[in-house]
C-alpha cells in the first residue's frame, strides 16, 4: 500500500500542464515540433533531425503548418485522420486545443494534446511518448464524447505524420505471401497515393507488414542517409497511406483499416487507437532498424532483453506423426547435440477425433491417448531425463467442423446467417469469435489448463492458420456487426494479457502459417515469431534480411532444416543452413536421427559456437551491409555489442558463376581506434587466411577483407573481438 502511494505521488509530481505554444518533443537524435495554442487548431510543424536551441526552424522555413490530426470538416478534399458523424447527421469536426499535459516517470515522457470540437462535446487527445533510453516516439489517439446518442467513427487513424519531401524520396516496405513473407520492396515515391493495407482479419502480416521506411536522400542505403521509419503496433487490419499531392509534403496516415469497420462510439466510451512507433536516423535503414530494435527489446517485446534457448521443433521432422517414442527419441538426439528446448508441434491432441491431419480436432485440446499414453507428463518426464525443456504447439483461436468443440458450440464460430460457410485448412477449419467473452474464456483456458496441469511447460507455439471469413458475429448486436474486425483483436489482447500476467515466465512464439503474425500489436506477449514456413536457407537470407528491418534477431526464429529442403527442394550444405539460422534465434526443424554422423558432429560444434556468440547476435546492434536484394550475388551483415568489444560478421554467397567478381567485404559499426582479432566460426574445411589475424577497426571498416567464397552456397561467419 505504501509502495502504491509512493508511486502515485511520484507519478503525480511529474504531471504538468504546458503553457508554451511551440512544443518540442526530442529524443537524442530527433525532434517533433508541434504548435498548440489554446482555442486554435493544433499544428504539426516538423519531424526530423534534432533541432538545436540556437537556430530557429520558423526563420529557416523548414517548419510547415499542417493540422496535427486532420479532421473531415471544413477541409474536405484531402485525406483525413478522423471523420465522425454526429447523432444529428453532421459529418464534420473542428478540433481546437483545450490543454496540453505532460507526464514523466520511469524514463518515459508522455505529452497529451487535448482537443475538443468547437461545437459538439466531442474530444480527441493525441498522445506522444518518448523515452530517455531510445530513439523511438510512440503516438496514439483517444476519442470520446458526451453527445446524447452514439457518434459513428468512419476514420480513426493512429497517427498522422507529414514529412517534408525532397527531390528523390523512396519508400521501403515488406510484401509477400505464404512461404515468402515480408520481402523488402523499394520504390521511389511518386505523385498520388500509395497504400499498404491488410484485410486478413487475423493474420495481418502474411502479405504486407505494417511497417515502412521513408528515405529522404534518394535510393535507400543501409549505412547512410536520412530515413524515417515507422511501424503500427496492431494485430488486425491496417492501412498505411502515403498521400503525395502537388505540395512539398508527403502526408502519411497510419492506423486500423476502417473498411467495413465503422465504429459506433457510445457516449462516454473511450476509443483508443493502436500505437504507431516511429523514428528518425541519419545512419540509413540500418540506423532505423537499430533504433526500432532497441525500443522493441527495452519496451515492446516480451522478455526483450533475455537470451533465447536453442530449440528443436518437431514439425518438419515428423509432421502429424507424433508419439511418445518418437518425441523421446527426438529429445534425446537433440539434447546430445547440445539443444536446450524441444517443441512438440501439431498432431498431439484430439480424443474423439485424433488429430492426424489438418481436417479435424482443433478445439479439442486433450492429449490423444493412442499416440501419447503417458500424456504430457510423459513428455515432460522425457525432456527432464534428457536435461532439456519442453514446449508445445496450440492453435486456440480455431476449430474444425469435425471436433467436439464445434459439435458443442457451433455458435462460437465467426459466421453469417443464411449463407453456406466458407472453410479454411483441410476444408473444415473455422475461426472462433473472439469478440465473445465466452470464447475469450475458452481460449484463455486452453493455455491455463495446460499450464495448471503442467507448470513445467516452458514454451508455447501459438499458431493461427486461417483468415477471417464468413464475416459476422452471433455475439455482437446487429448495429455493431461492423466492430468484429476490431473486437476480435481486442478479445485476443485481453486473452494474451491474462496469460502474460498469470504466466510471466512462459516463452511464447507467435506463428500464423509461418510469418503471418509479425507485428508489435502482439509482440508484448510473445518472445518471438516463426519467420516463415519456408526454411530454405537461401530464401531465408532474403526473408530474414527483410524482417530484420523492423524486428530484432532474438525474436526471429530461424531453423536449420533437412538436407533437401521440404519447401524449395533445394540442397544446401549444412554449414550454409547453420550460418543462415545463426543470424537469428537458432533452432532446428528436422528429424535428428536422419542426420549423418558427420553432420551431427558439425551441428554439435555449431550449437556450442552459437552459445558463445548468442549475446552478441541476440542483443547486439545490427549493421546490414551488403543487401541480397542488390543482386551482387552476396549478402553480409554483422552484430556489434554496444561497447564495440565484440562482433559477429556473416557473409553469404547467393549465387555462383565462374569468373564472378568477388567484392571486398567491409565491416561496419566497429570502433576505428580498437584492434580486433578475427576468428572464423563454423569452419568447414580450411579456415580463411584472415582467421587468427588482428586488424584495426578502421582498417576493417574502410579497407576491408578479400574473403574466399568460391563455391555455391559458400558462407563465412567471423567472430570479431577487441584485443588490447
Ligand atoms: C502452420 C505452422 C507450421 C506448423 C503447422 C502445423 O503451418 O506455420 O509451423 O506448426 O502449422 O499444422
How would you describe the shape? globular
Q: What kind of assembly state do the chains in view correspond to?
A: single chain
DSSP strand content: 25-35%
Identify the bound ligands: alpha-D-galactopyranose
Please characterize this protein's 3D structure.
The chain has 724 residues and is an alpha+beta fold. The protein is 21% helix and 31% strand. The protein contains 13 helices and 38 strands. Strands 1, 7, 8, 9, 10, 13, 14, 16, 17, 21 and 22 form an 11-stranded antiparallel β-sheet that branches. A hairpin with a 4-residue loop joins strand 18 (238-244) and strand 19. The chain is globular. Residues 6-13 have low confidence and may be disordered. The structure holds alpha-D-galactopyranose. Alpha-D-galactopyranose (GLA) binds next to loops.
Q: What are the main properties of this structure?
A:
binds alpha-D-galactopyranose, alpha+beta, 11-stranded antiparallel beta sheet, 724 residues, 13 helices, globular, 8-stranded parallel β-barrel
Task: Walk me through the topology.
Blueprint: H1 2-13, E1 16-17, E2 22-26, E3 30-35, E4 43-49, H2 57-60, E5 66-67, E6 82-85, E7 95-105, E8 108-117, E9 122-131, E10 137-145, E11 151-156, E12 159-164, E13 170-177, E14 180-188, E15 192-198, E16 211-215, E17 227-233, E18 238-244, E19 249-256, E20 263-265, E21 271-272, E22 275-281, H3 284-300, E23 311-313, H4 315-318, H5 324-337, E24 341-344, H6 375-385, E25 389-394, E26 398-400, H7 404-408, E27 429-431, H8 437-453, E28 457-462, H9 484-502, E29 507-510, E30 528-530, H10 537-547, E31 556-561, H11 574-581, E32 585-589, H12 597-619, E33 621-626, E34 634-640, E35 646-653, E36 675-681, E37 694-696, H13 697-702, E38 715-723
Parallel strand pairs: 23-24, 23-32, 24-25, 25-28, 28-29, 29-30, 30-31, 31-32
Antiparallel strand pairs: 1-7, 2-3, 3-4, 4-5, 6-11, 7-8, 8-9, 9-10, 10-21, 10-22, 11-20, 12-19, 13-14, 13-16, 15-18, 16-17, 17-22, 18-19, 26-27, 33-34, 34-35, 35-38, 36-37, 36-38
Helix pairs in contact: 5-6, 8-9, 10-11
Amino acid at each position: 500500500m505504501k509502495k502504491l502511494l509512493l508511486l502515485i505521488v511520484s507519478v503525480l509530481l511529474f504531471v504538468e500542464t504546458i503553457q508554451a505554444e511551440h512544443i518540442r518533443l526530442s529524443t537524442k537524435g530527433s525532434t517533433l515540433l508541434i504548435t498548440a495554442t489554446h482555442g486554435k487548431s493544433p499544428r504539426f510543424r516538423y519531424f526530423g533531425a534534432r533541432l538545436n536551441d540556437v537556430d530557429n526552424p520558423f526563420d529557416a522555413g523548414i517548419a510547415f503548418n499542417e493540422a496535427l490530426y486532420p479532421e473531415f470538416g471544413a477541409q474536405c478534399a484531402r485525406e483525413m485522420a478522423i471523420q465522425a458523424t454526429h447523432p444529428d447527421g453532421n459529418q464534420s469536426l473542428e478540433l481546437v486545443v483545450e490543454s496540453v499535459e505532460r507526464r514523466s516517470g520511469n524514463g518515459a515522457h508522455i505529452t497529451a494534446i487535448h482537443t475538443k470540437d468547437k461545437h459538439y462535446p466531442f474530444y480527441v487527445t493525441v498522445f506522444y511518448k518518448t523515452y530517455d533510453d531510445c530513439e523511438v516516439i510512440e503516438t496514439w489517439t483517444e476519442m470520446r464524447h458526451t453527445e446524447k446518442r452514439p457518434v459513428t467513427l468512419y476514420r480513426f487513424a493512429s497517427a498522422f505524420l507529414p514529412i517534408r519531401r525532397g527531390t528523390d524520396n523512396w519508400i521501403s516496405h515488406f510484401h509477400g505471401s505464404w512461404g515468402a513473407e515480408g520481402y523488402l520492396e523499394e520504390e521511389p515515391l511518386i505523385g498520388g497515393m500509395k497504400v499498404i493495407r491488410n484485410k486478413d482479419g487475423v493474420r495481418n502480416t502474411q502479405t504486407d507488414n505494417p511497417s515502412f521506411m521513408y528515405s529522404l536522400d534518394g535510393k535507400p542505403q543501409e549505412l547512410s542517409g536520412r530515413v524515417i521509419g515507422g511501424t503500427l503496433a496492431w494485430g488486425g487490419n491496417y492501412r498505411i497511406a502515403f498521400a503525395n499531392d502537388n505540395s512539398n509534403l508527403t502526408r502519411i496516415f497510419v492506423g486500423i483499416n476502417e473498411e467495413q469497420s465503422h465504429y459506433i462510439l457510445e457516449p462516454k466510451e473511450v476509443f483508443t487507437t493502436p500505437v504507431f512507433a516511429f523514428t528518425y536516423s541519419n545512419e540509413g535503414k540500418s540506423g532505423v532498424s537499430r533504433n526500432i530494435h532497441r525500443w522493441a527489446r527495452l519496451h515492446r517485446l516480451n522478455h526483450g532483453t533475455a537470451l533465447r534457448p536453442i530449440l528443436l521443433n518437431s514439425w518438419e521432422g515428423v509432421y502429424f506423426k507424433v508419439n511418445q517414442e518418437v518425441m523421446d527419441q527426438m529429445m534425446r538426439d537433440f539434447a546430445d547435440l547440445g539443444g536446450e528446448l524441444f517443441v512438440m508441434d501439431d498432431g498431439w491432441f484430439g480424443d474423439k477425433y485424433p488429430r492426424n491431419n489438418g481436417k479435424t480436432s482443433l478445439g479439442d485440446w486433450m492429449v490423444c491417448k493412442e499416440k501419447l499414453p503417458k500424456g504430457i507428463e510423459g513428455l515432460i518426464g522425457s525432456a527432464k531425463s534428457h536435461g532439456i525443456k519442453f514446449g508445445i504447439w496450440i492453435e486456440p483461436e480455431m476449430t474444425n467442423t469435425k471436433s467436439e468443440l464445434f459439435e458443442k458450440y457451433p455458435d462460437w464460430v465467426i459466421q453469417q446467417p443464411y449463407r453456406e460457410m466458407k472453410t479454411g485448412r483441410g476444408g473444415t477449419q473455422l475461426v472462433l469469435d473472439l469478440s465473445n467473452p465466452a470464447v475469450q474464456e475458452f481460449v484463455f483456458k486452453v493455455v491455463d489448463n495446460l499450464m495448471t496441469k503442467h507448470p513445467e511447460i516452458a514454451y508455447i507455439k501459438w499458431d493461427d492458420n486461417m483468415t477471417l471469413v464468413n464475416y459476422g458475429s452471433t455475439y455482437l448486436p446487429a448495429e455493431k456487426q461492423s466492430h468484429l474486425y476490431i473486437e476480435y483483436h481486442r478479445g485476443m489482447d485481453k486473452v494474451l494479457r491474462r496469460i502474460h500476467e498469470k504466466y510471466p515466465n512462459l516463452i511464447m512464439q507467435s506463428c500464423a502459417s509461418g510469418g503471418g503474425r509479425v507485428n508489435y500489436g502482439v509482440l508484448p506477449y510473445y518472445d518471438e515469431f516463426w519467420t516463415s514456413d519456408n526454411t530454405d536457407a537461401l530464401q531465408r537470407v532474403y526473408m530474414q534480411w527483410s524482417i530484420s528491418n523492423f524486428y530484432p534477431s532474438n525474436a526471429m526464429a530461424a531453423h536449420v532444416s533437412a538436407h533437401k529442403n521440404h519447401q524449395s527442394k533445394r540442397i544446401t550444405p549444412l554449414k550454409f543452413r547453420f550460418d543462415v539460422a545463426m543470424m537469428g534465434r537458432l533452432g532446428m526443424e528436422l528429424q535428428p536421427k536422419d542426420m549423418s554422423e558427420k553432420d551431427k558432429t558439425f551441428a554439435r560444434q555449431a550449437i556450442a559456437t552459437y552459445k558463445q556468440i548468442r549475446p552478441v547476435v541476440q542483443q547486439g546492434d545490427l549493421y546490414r551491409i551488403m543487401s541480397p536484394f542488390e543482386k551482387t550475388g552476396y549478402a553480409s551483415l554483422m552484430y556489434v555489442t554496444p561497447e564495440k568489444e565484440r562482433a559477429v560478421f556473416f557473409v553469404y554467397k547467393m549465387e555462383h558463376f565462374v569468373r564472378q567478381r568477388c567484392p571486398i567485404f567491409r565491416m561496419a559499426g566497429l570502433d576505428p581506434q580498437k584492434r580486433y582479432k578475427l576468428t572464423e566460426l563454423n569452419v568447414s574445411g580450411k579456415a580463411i587466411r584472415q582467421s587468427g589475424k588482428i586488424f584495426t577497426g578502421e582498417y576493417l571498416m574502410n579497407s576491408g577483407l578479400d574473403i574466399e567464397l568460391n563455391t555455391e552456397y559458400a558462407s563465412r561467419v567471423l567472430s570479431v573481438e577487441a584485443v588490447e
